[in-house]
Amino acid sequence: MKIAIQGEPGSFSHDAATRMAPDATIVPCSISAEVFAALTKGTVDAAVIPIENSLAGSVAEHFDLLLTHDVKVVRESLLRIRHNLIGVAGASIDEIDRVFSHPVALAQCRRLFVEHPKMQPVSNYDTAGSVKQVVELGDKRQAAIASEAAARHYGAEILKAGIEDNPQNYTRFFLVRRSADAVSDPEANKTSVAFTGVNRPGYLVAVLSELAARGTNLTKIESRPIHGSPWEYVFYLDFQMGSSDEATQAMEALRSHCAMVKELGRYREARGTESA
Q1: From the candidates 127, 171, 196, 216, which is the catalytic residue?
Q2: Known catalytic residue at 171
Q3: Which of 63, 173, 174, 239 is catalytic?
Q4: Domains of the chain (ranges plus CATH)?
Q5: Whole-angstrom Cα distance, residue 208 to residue 184?
């Protein structure tokens, strides 16, 4: 099984993918659009994408890509995110003046930069890719913020562990497959859906009332602008249900109120978390 991820080996997405499919071959991609292109073309069998972080919020681009591609979410997992300051062998914290990482990772480690004002944060495309870059340059004045796995993979040294500002830092990941290859999970108890409304007052209240009347537990809702249609929005929501039949009934109820409804996936709720 080949699984595409956005990022380099040793990234958090890499870690999440190997935990969900230990025997899979991981296919790194530079950007998320490449991940979905590889999946829809059949170059890979599945993709693992981060969809939401407990501190930074949703990965909006990934919701948009799920909507515009013929794919389904088949599984979710939760990963505890632990950030580390990583440098080349022999480097010391006092020497570091530039720290590279993904912008979200940098934002989650602000205390590090307050405590070490000499360090300048520098945005990069990937956490693990930042470690790779630091190792290739071999400059003891540069460091990266990434996972322990990234340090191991590139032969780097952890200068300081657990540097995240808030330990309650978790990322939710989706395992995504082409719709034609998605197999229904008989124990699925959670559904992700996207919908757009009709031009009448109160339609969103009607949608939510339909879900509430059926006893569904709404766990997430947010809106995103529709590209090419200013001031029009698509809503994304997750809800839990007791059975697959109940989920089907809820979807039918949504269609009676909405101009467009797309089920993004029906899967089992992730119960536990694992540490990166």
Answers
A1: 171
A2: yes
A3: 173
A4: 2-81+169-182 (3.40.190.10), 84-161 (3.40.190.10), 190-267 (3.30.70.260)
A5: 25
